[in-house]
Amino acid sequence: MGTLILRRLLYSIPLLLLATLVLFWAVRTTDSFDPTARLAQSRDPETVQRAREELGLDDPIMVQYGNWLGDFVTGDWGQSSATREDVSSMIQRSFWNTLQLIFFGVLASATIAMTIGVYSAVKQYSLGDYLFTGLSYVGIAMPPFFFALMAIHFLAVEPRSWFSLEEVPLKFVGLHGSGQSGFNWDYIQHLILPVMTLTVQIVASWTRFQRAAMLDVLSSDYIRTARAKGVPRRQIIIKHGVRNSLIPLVTVMAVDIGLLFGGLIITESIFNIPGMGKLFFDALLDGDAPVILAWMFVAGSFILAFNLLADLLYGVLDPRVRVG
Fold first, then answer.
1. pLDDT by residue for the chain (324 residues), tens digit each?
2. Under a CB-based contact definition with an 8 Å cutoff, are residues 198 and 101 in contact?
3. Which residues partner with 79 through β-bridges?
4. Residue 85 contacts residue 265 (beta carbons within 8 Å)
5. Is-contact 190 176, C-beta < 8 A?
6. How far apart (Å, rounded) are the C-alpha atoms in residues 44 and 220?
């Protein structure tokens, strides 16, 4: 198991460096990310050239990348070219907001998906199986922005007039109301709609994986042997079936969780949550190269980290993996 982890680390680090190098090259060769572009409109060419030399923008790409990477790994992430705020502070604040959303979203998604997936497999071709299968296809096909807008309209805005409420029952701007903080009812009200939007497609996708994996396990030889020995059906399903069927789902969950750290652009933008996705979107519009580069490194690191976590979980769920 230790050899497997070491091997994954040895090729994950070069992969991360290669990805950041490609992104660095793309940013440095794109005019919209040139920090001297605004100076060129109002100052003489000599001033602009002096600024480029001070920033090292005329150096070869590999030299620029080496300088940026050296500063980055030592904690100097630079300042935002749009807000002049430390990039490290912006990343930390955005990461924490996204982490809250992902934690509750993944917790709800995993619980619902595993429950429905196991039920659909055990009750294959039943009315409930057909119902959940149909709903999963709808969930996969439904765009997140559409579900978010419908959820805001029917679960927050319209109930105010239906029940003659003074304010909407569910909040949909940010994670806290004005003057609010911490884990309280206001926080829960703000969290419900974005978590629902986050979970729709995830639950639909994970349910299909769990159902397929569970069906494959239930048809295995050791399950038939357990039945022939008279092992109780509940024990067969929970102890032998569910645990082994989680192995394929773990891969999907780990990859999806890593991607979510930077992939909630639509959800965070609609609900105005200042997380990693919204930070990337705003930085892209502003041509904020320091934020984009730091964001890419952090997001890429978490994708690789959760892939490594999947390998560790393999050893827990399947002892055969630990042998290698």
1. 667 677 777 878 888 889 899 989 988 888 778 777 665 555 667 776 777 777 777 788 899 899 999 999 998 998 888 888 999 999 999 999 999 999 999 999 999 999 999 999 999 999 999 999 999 999 999 898 899 999 999 999 899 888 888 788 888 888 888 777 788 888 999 999 999 999 998 999 999 999 999 999 988 888 888 888 888 888 888 888 888 888 888 888 888 888 887 778 889 989 999 999 999 999 988 888 899 999 989 988 888 888 888 777 776 666 665 544
2. yes
3. 86
4. no
5. yes
6. 75
| Cα–Cα distance measured from residue 155 to residue 162, given in angstroms and rounded to the nearest whole number | 11
Which residue, among 160, 147, 162, 158, has the nearest Cα to 193 in the 3D structure? 147
> Do residues 61 and 25 lie in contact, with contact meaning Cβ atoms separated by under 8 Å?
yes
Q: Which domains does the chain have, with CATH numbers?
A: 2-33+77-323 (1.10.3720.10)
Helices 144-152, 185-218: crossing angle, 10 deg rounding: 140
Sequence-distant (6+) residues with CB within 8 A of 6 are none
Residue 88 amino acid letter: S
Amino acid, single-letter form, for residue 48:
V
Structure tokens at 174: 């940010």
Q: Residue 237 carries which side chain, given as an amino acid letter?
A: I
Tokens at 184, concatenated:
């309280």
